[in-house]
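[Meeting: bench + compute handoff]

Bench side (C.D.) handed over the final construct sequence. Compute side (W.E.) agreed to return the predicted structure before the next meeting so the bench team could plan truncations. Sequence as handed over:
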Amino acid sequence: MRQIFSVTQLNTQVRYVLEDSLGMVWLTGELSNFKSYGSGHWYFSLKDDKSQVSCAMFRGKNTGVTFRPQDGMQLLVRARPTVYEPRGNYQLVVEFMEPAGDGLLKQQFDALKMKLAAEGLFSDARKRPLPAHPKRIGVISSPSGAAVHDILNVLKRRAPFLDVVLYPAQVQGDKSAAQLCQQLLTANQRAEVDVIILGRGGGSLEDLWSFNDEQLARAIAQSAIPVVSAVGHETDVTISDFVADLRAPTPSAAAELVSSQAGLIKDRFNELGLRLTALWQGYRRVQQSRQQELSERLYRQSPERKLERDSQKLDELKLRLQRALPRLLSQQRQPLALLTAKLSHHHPGKRLGEAQLQLTRLTSALDQSLNGYLNQRRQQQLRLIDKLQLVSPLATLSRGYAIAQDQTGQVVDSIDKVMVGDVLTVRVKDGVIETDIKDKSAR
């Protein structure tokens, strides 16, 4: 049996099919035709060099956008394909947007993180503790970077007897991830260091992207030597941080972690010094507290204190009066505002203006009605003229006929009505002719 849809039913079915089959999608594109309405909703298009698609982002979602969209921006969006049924238009309802670039990298970061976590590369069970007493520290980083200098300065201060082996590698750019992997392999093949610090200084997500490389992550996991990841600042997080045996918030912190046991004696002296300082400061605080207590007892019993309390109470009463006065004035202004509004509503000028508007509308309507009536009468007159011309003798005269009239003006339609010698007036199409009868004969 033939199934017949209405347009609305068809659009609804198409919307169900589109939403159920695709769900949420991620896509990138160039923003164009951006419009923000008073309702708070945004409407725009996303396009590439071959196609474009209409988009809508409603107020409940776009309030979380931290930047102002502008035409020409490259965006990364998460959206739900659907159909706007009243017009049958295919569109995207956007749930999330951010500038493309870092946003796309963040998506790739999350995907790789989930993949490696599922494989167990981040598991604490496979991570090894750092050696308690390392003799030689390996550093994989750029030899000209600030990270290497920070690591060397910390080690020189905390454990100057430790040897450091530098494995130079680029830490940014297309070839950096491959060089980092190679130097990690080299360090394992030489087996000359007890622990490896892998890192660099801070930067943007794109600058640190080499440390989010999948091959580097697997090389760290396969390293026979414990690896400390020290990439960027404390707030920077990379895939290397998750897979390494230990994550340090900064390169300097990594140097402190690998040399922690070497600095125990120095730390013990520092601790004793701090304890001695703390005891002395505690004694001083006790004496100062006793002195302060005696001073306060003397102060509480003095007339000066009573005067301060009375002054404070006076200030409080003054503040309460200052706060109450505006409220009282506001309460008095409200009835006055209501009366002013009523007076404005009944003001003759307002009613006169309304009457003038009414007069203008009526005058305009009268003009339109009169013009319509006159046009109707003109058309009627033209139709009557056309009918009159159809029966007018003049129309007959224009075809070559003539009308003969006697002296009394009677139309001569028979020879019996005239005599020889009578004068006739003959009317033709363009004038009259005076003539007399010289003869007459029947046909």
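W.E. noted at the follow-up: The chain has a mean pLDDT of 84. C.D. will use this when planning the next construct.
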